[in-house]
Specification:
Blueprint lengths: L3 H6 L1 E7 L5 H16 L6 E4 L7 E8 L6 H5 L3 E9 L1 E2 L11 E2 L7 H7 L5 E5 L8 E2 L2 E2 H6 L9 E14 L2 E8 L5 H11 L4 E11 L2 E2 L6 H7 L5
Parallel strand pairs: 3-12
Antiparallel strand pairs: 1-3, 2-3, 4-11, 4-12, 5-6, 7-10, 8-9, 10-11, 12-13
């Protein structure tokens, strides 16, 4: 059994973040559980790599002295699975906003979908979505977007180590991607649509790995709380 002292000394906890939760909500629930179930008055806790509310999957949560390892963990390769919707775009590149444009898909073949992957392997220039938490002129990009302000977004280098198409059932395309820190899968969705002379947005996303850590070994925030019931 893990004791209160173990959490203070430092733990890396593998959490399966539920859909529609923010990463902050997941960490907050765990912090509350540690304080209420184990009687801890103060504990350091934080996560390595934010997941959007519309994404589920692996969240690495560090406690105690292991919070010093957050930056190191954030820098590791990440694996995602999910689904693109081909033939339509949204301003946020995902389901956070409504469809703003629709496109033809009759010309798209399975071979075209598989060939489009080649454009994304290796180091690529990627523009983050306007609906992202990156700061520009003192404000988050999504704050500019919600005010209807036009902002020039600089592209940045990211690396796509693996990109596999796992199902084609147009308008849906399932994928698996292994990528570097800072990669926006939503931007890949948008750019993938353009590579097919069409449009695309992300309709499902799940983070399955961070470095050697796998979501297969993760538990939900609720299960974490339940695991502490007999620890106090």
């Amino acid at each position: 059994m893990i004791s209160a002292d173990d959490f203070l000394s430092g733990q890396i906890l593998l959490i399966d973040k539920p859909l529609h939760w923010t990463s902050f909500q997941a960490v907050n629930k765990m912090k509350w559980a540690l304080k209420s179930k184990l009687g801890l008055k103060k504990i350091k806790i934080g996560h390595a790599g934010t997941l959007d509310p519309l994404a589920s999957g692996l969240l690495l949560v560090c406690t105690g002295k292991f919070t010093k390892r957050i930056e190191e963990l954030q820098g590791q390769k990440k694996e995602y699975t999910g689904t693109f919707y081909i033939g339509a775009t949204t301003p946020s590149y995902d389901l956070e906003t409504e469809i703003d444009n629709t496109f033809e898909t009759d010309h798209i073949t399975d071979d075209m979908v598989r060939d489009a992957v080649k454009n994304f392997i290796g180091e690529i220039d990627q523009k983050p979505p306007i609906f992202s938490a990156i700061k520009k002129e003192g404000k988050r990009l999504y704050e500019h977007a919600r005010l209807g302000e036009e902002v020039e977004i600089q592209s940045r280098k990211v690396t796509i180590h693996e990109f596999e198409i796992t199902r084609i059932a147009l308008p849906e395309v399932d994928f698996r991607i292994v990528c570097s820190k800072g990669t926006y899968i939503r931007s890949i969705a948008y750019d993938f649509g353009q590579a097919l002379d069409s449009g695309s947005h992300l309709i499902a996303l799940r983070r399955t790995k961070i470095g050697e850590y796998s979501v297969e070994n993760a538990i939900s925030p609720q299960q974490f709380e339940e695991s502490l019931e007999n620890e106090g």
